Amino acid sequence: MIGMANGPLYRTRKGVVYQGLAEDILRSKWFKPLQNKVNLIFTSPPFPLKKKKAYGNLNGEEYVNWLAGFAEIFNELLADDGSLVVELGNSWVSGLPAMSIESLEALMELKKRGNYHLCQEFIWHNPSALPSPVEWVNVRRIRVKNTFSRIWWLSKSPYPKADNKAVLQEYSPAMKKVLKNKKYNSGSRPSGYKIGEKSFLRDNGGAIPSNVLYISNSASTDPYLEYCKKHKIRYHPARMPVDLAKFFILFLTDERDIVIDPFAGSNVTGWAAENLNRRWRSIEKDAVYARSSKVRFPNAWDLNGGR
Ligand SMILES: C[S@@+](CC[C@H](N)C(=O)[O-])C[C@H]1O[C@@H](n2cnc3c(N)ncnc32)[C@H](O)[C@@H]1O
User: Fold this and answer.
1) Among candidate residues 302, 274, 299, 270, the one with its CA nearest the CA of residue 283
2) Which atom number of ligand 1 is nearest to the Cα of residue 66?
3) Residues with CB under 6 A from ligand 1
4) Options 3.30.450.20, 3.40.50.150, 3.10.20.30, 3.40.50.300; which CATH number does 7-165+209-296 get?
5) Cross-strand partners of 15
């Protein structure tokens, strides 16, 4: 029996949004057929915040246990070469200019309980983040702006499906010049490593990205936001930029693969997956966020009357 209510809310040709608790829906009849088939779980769970946000967050040990408690069901769903990518922001100790390590502890516990490999740690740097916490950064001026969050790429196998050629970035102007002139001072690096001129001067179609992702989250062009503002609907306060979801979907999956987001919010993950021709499933417990995210999909249709 599913707690609280819920189930499928709307769908497209490639994906379905479910409204309800991820802990229930992931174990429901709707997800049984996906066992051992999911290529990517990409998600930004609720953070362990010092103050409760509108969407309700846990704290402390309770939070660590709650997040790590998903390891078992994630393992059942993930394909053997699938990936679990979790984005978690930093949090602060209540009332103090000190950082909390709860999000790190939760990631570590999730890794441990799932027996995962940490394939790589990423930093998502959001240059347009507002200064916070206001008390320490703007008022007392004793801390600096917090502008990054941590992304852990975990997997069952040390060799999950991945291809960095799918996420090449535009070469820098300096590199473009080097490739054009076919000339480079191929002396030793400070480390003593000597760059082979031949391989360095080859145009590989783009630069290999680093694990620091510079993606702004100003999102003023998000059609979801426009729609919610126009219709006076409570919109999601912590949406991620679609380029962040696209990066991991392109890097870790192929077309037609299955991507799921169990804490989908405004369903940016489903939106990115739809546009990249991946199959997707998203779960969100808040009915308002889940329902209004349908605006991202012009061809979506309601299920069970849209609840
Ligand atoms: C950080 S937000 C995700 C934002 C999303 N990535 C986006 O771009 O819109 C986390 C979401 O998880 C939802 N949530 C919290 N607990 C949940 C649960 N047990 N099951 C499903 N969703 C949950 C919250 O309502 C919130 O919308």
Assistant:
1) 270
2) 19
3) 21-23, 44-46, 55, 236, 238-240, 263-266, 268, 283-286, 289
4) 3.40.50.150
5) 280
